[in-house]
Design a protein that fits this description.
The protein is an alpha/beta fold. It contains 29 helices and 20 strands. 44% of the residues lie in helices and 12% in strands. The strands form 6 sheets. Strands 1-5-7-8-9-10-11 form a 7-stranded parallel beta sheet. A 5-stranded parallel beta sheet has the order 16-17-18-19-20. Strands 2-3 form a two-stranded antiparallel ribbon. Strand 7, helix 10 and strand 8 form a beta-alpha-beta unit.
Length: 774
């Protein structure tokens, strides 16, 4: 078996970055939205990018390229279109123009709300949540998938369509508006499977030999009913006669109890993650009896991080796997969507550090190298193995990765450092006396629109076209405008608008020792929103204050409180490419200590309200419940370490968005923040109900303005949401704010939306006072 399993091992990937080397797709789509780019030009840009991706993969030695992974906005939204699950409110627009209807589902229009958006498992990518109900009728619409396959085959590539699997699709879905909350989309499986059968048949007719069905939802804890549904789904799909060979893929963790279910299914192959927590799949596969006669695609190159692979270790894993399957091929652990495109584009990274980095193109070469070693023997890649060992040694012995002073400070942390000096009830009294805010106080989450002028100023500073003084004057002018607008609008707790910040993580990373910032390391967050996650390469320290100057300047312009704004330690890790050579808990503690210095300096400079954002607390939650307690322990401790050095009358805020919070409510309580703001507009105040049910005792700002849509909510709409929030949270503990920061929105919509938000708060506040008086 070993010889045949290794014979001609193929190299493949599950997906590739979509944006292009210069984010051409983002620019074309946003140009289309603004009317500057026509539909045909947009489609042509997409075609060129798809073809370039396939050619790059083929030129690198990838034997089987993916199709169907390329998307204008989101692959889960593409799946909803493929199975005909278009919400009723979008159907007319979709039938009139599929492209505009597609974007309406993603972004909404002024008259129609978009689909809800949330995180793709525990990654930084967002997907559009399918809306399903008992009356949902699925219809096959595989044109996108079929056309992409035909296109790749016509260019001479060996291609494998990649689809979201039916179990994962249904488990990611939610009840449509108006459908009872206890409706289980998985009950629609028997209705959905014939549609998948039709899609598979069409792909076979178009020339597909293999089709990959992604089932990452099965790496989470699943009840027997879900496992039985998975067994039934792949029994039925496997029994089809008019279909390609089926490859079921999972990633991000171990399959656990789902592995024997899929191993026994009548499909021709499995693709498994053997990195990080997925490494347990090796023993589980052996315990399940392996995959005799079947194809195994081994994800031995980490598709979610940017560090070079340990080629020797991966070769050892592959050698073990040879005895467990009929054929073993090599791949990254998941789609390369989650990493930047090309590390060689980074011109400013130290040459020694550059040796440690592997982005999508470099990971592709690692996969090809491993496939060659598996086929021809380790001697065939001896030079690559030797160079890899030298690079790994360089990293492990670098002064960047080990700072004795940082490690000593971390080791000296005590329990007292992670506790406020007074309990919340006593702090709340002191804070209300100091701040003097009205009921239902209004605020925003932090950022205001990042205008073209601001981006131009940053580019001019980098290019030397303006000096530091000129740049600072531009930032001060923007802060003055933001403060003036908030005062005129009547917002109660102001922000300085963060005009100096390129990104809520990168801005801090660029000022902390131990972080590396990239220039071209763009990664898709959602739709056309791309971020450049910094690289957490070594031990962390803060050389000097990072935000005090701008916050103090803003506070000097107004008598109202101005929030100091920081990004929390968990989010600093989650939205970076984190080091993999020490426990995450230790890295989080180092970051927390650096941020603690900043919090204390803000307070000393006069800040009475300080917000430490932790939107990533939920998304970083391990996929397996057995790992939750340990994670939440160090995650909440790191937040408290950041914030617990302030006076009782200094109000600590935090913020979270676009995640499911129901299963971390105790952890939210454990943060011991005085005020938390959360996304609630798209989910119709669901989180407020959850917090109320859990008995959450602190102040809450559930968002009433969905900032991820260009829609401007009316004052009545915001008031309706606010009144719904009051059904769960008493007025003395309820804040009024948007869902998230405003940096991606334009000034015209922000002005109107915030004016409506304040008007809604005043209307509801007046009603409360009237009811109290009567």
């Amino acid at each position: 078996m070993s010889t045949s399993a290794a014979a001609g091992a193929r190299a493949t990937v599950y997906g590739y970055p979509r944006q292009g080397p210069n984010r051409e797709l983002k620019k074309a789509i946003e140009g289309y939205w603004k009317g500057r780019v026509g539909a045909d030009a947009l489609r042509e840009t997409a075609t060129q990018l798809r073809r370039a991706n396939w050619q790059q993969l083929a030129d690198a030695g990838i034997h089987e390229v993916p199709t169907g992974d390329f998307s204008y906005y989101d692959h889960v939204l593409d799946t909803s279109v493929m199975v005909g699950a278009v919400p009723d409110r979008h159907r007319a627009a979709f039938e009139a123009d599929t492209l505009d209807g597609y974007f309406a589902m993603a972004r909404g229009t002024q008259d129609v709300a978009p689909l809800e958006m949330t995180k793709w498992f525990n990654t930084n990518y967002h997907y559009l949540v399918p809306e399903l109900g008992p009356d949902t009728v699925f219809t096959a619409n595989p044109a996108k998938q079929v056309d992409a396959l035909k296109e790749a085959l016509a260019l001479g590539h060996t291609a494998r369509p990649v689809l979201v699997g039916p179990i994962t699709y249904l488990l990611l879905a939610k009840p449509a508006p108006g459908v009872p909350a206890d409706f289980e989309p998985l009950t629609l499986l028997d209705r959905l499977l014939p549609v998948y059968a039709e899609v598979l048949s069409d792909l076979r007719t178009a020339g597909a030999r293999w089709v990959q069905l992604d089932e990452p939802a099965l790496v989470q804890d699943r009840l027997p009913a879900v496992l039985n549904a998975a067994a039934r789904a792949y029994r039925d799909l496997g029994a089809l006669t008019d279909r390609p060979k089926l490859l079921v893929a999972s990633y991000f963790d171990r399959l656990g109890e789902a592995l024997p279910v899929l191993a026994k299914a009548p499909v021709e192959g499995l693709a498994l993650d053997f990195t990080g927590a997925g490494a347990a799949n090796l023993d589980d596969l052996a315990a399940a009896g392996g995959l005799p006669g079947k194809r195994l695609i081994a994800g031995v190159v980490d598709g979610r991080n940017v560090w070079i692979n340990d080629l020797g270790r991966s070769m050892a894993t592959l050698a073990t796997l040879l005895g467990l399957a009929g054929r073993v091929d090599v791949a990254p652990s998941c789609s390369l969507l989650h990493v930047p495109l090309d590390a060689t584009a980074e011109r400013d990274v130290d040459t020694q550090v550059a040796r440690w980095l592997a982005f999508a193109r470099q990971k592709t070469h690692e996969v090809v190298t491993l496939a060659r070693g598996l086929t021809e023997g380790s001697h065939s890649i001896a030079a690559q193995l030797a160079a890899n060992r030298a690079d790994l040694l360089s990293r492990s012995t670098s002064a960047l990765t080990h700072d004795p002073a940082v490690r000593a400070r971390s080791a000296a942390v005590t329990r007292a450092d992670t506790r406020r000096s007074l309990p919340y009830t006593e702090r709340a009294t002191a804070q209300r006396a100091r701040l003097g805010l009205p009921p239902l106080p209004t605020t925003t989450i932090g950022s205001f629109p990042q205008t073209t002028e601001l981006r131009t100023a940053r580019a001019d500073l980098r290019a030397g076209r303006i000096g530091t003084d000129g740049y600072n004057e531009r930032i001060e002018a923007e802060i003055r405008e933001v403060i003036s607008f908030q005062e005129k609008t009547g917002i109660d707790v102001l922000v300085h608008g963060e005009p100096e910040r390129n990104d809520m993580v990168q801005y801090f990373a660029e000022q902390l020792s131990g972080y590396l910032a990239t220039q071209q390391g763009w990664v898709q967050s959602y739709g056309t929103r791309y971020v450049r996650p910094p690289i957490l390469a070594g031990d962390i320290s803060r050389p000097e204050p990072m935000t005090v100057r701008w916050t103090s300047y803003a506070q000097s312009l107004t008598d109202r409180p101005v929030k100091g704004m920081l990004t929390g330690p968990v989010t600093m890790l989650a939205w970076s490419f984190v080091r993999d050579d020490q426990p995450l808990a230790e890295t989080a503690r180092q970051v927390a200590l650096a941020l603690r210095e900043e919090v204390n300096d803000l307070e000393a400079a006069g800040s009475s309200v300080i917000q430490v954002d932790e939107p990533a607390l939920r998304e970083t939650l391990p996929l397996r419940s057995a790992d939750h307690e340990a994670y939440l322990c160090w995650a909440t401790e790191s937040f408290r370490l950041t914030t617990s050095g302030v006076r009782p009358d200094t109000q600590i805020h935090t913020h979270m968005c676009y995640a499911e919070f129901g299963d971390i409510l105790q952890a939210i309580d454990d943060l011991d923040a005085d005020v938390i703001s959360l996304e609630a507009a798209r989910s119709h105040m669901q989180v407020a109900d959850e917090l109320s049910t859990a008995g959450y005792p602190r102040e809450v700002g559930p968002g009433v303005y969905d900032i991820h849509s260009p829609r401007v909510p009316s004052a009545d709409e915001a008031a309706t949401l606010l009144r719904k929030g009051l059904e769960a949270i008493p007025a003395e503990r309820l804040w009024v704010n948007p869902d998230c920061g405003l940096k991606t929105r334009g000034w015209p919509e922000v002005r109107t939306s915030l004016e409506n938000l304040v008007a809604a708060a005043r209307a509801v506040r007046s009603g409360i006072r009237g009811a109290t008086a009567s």
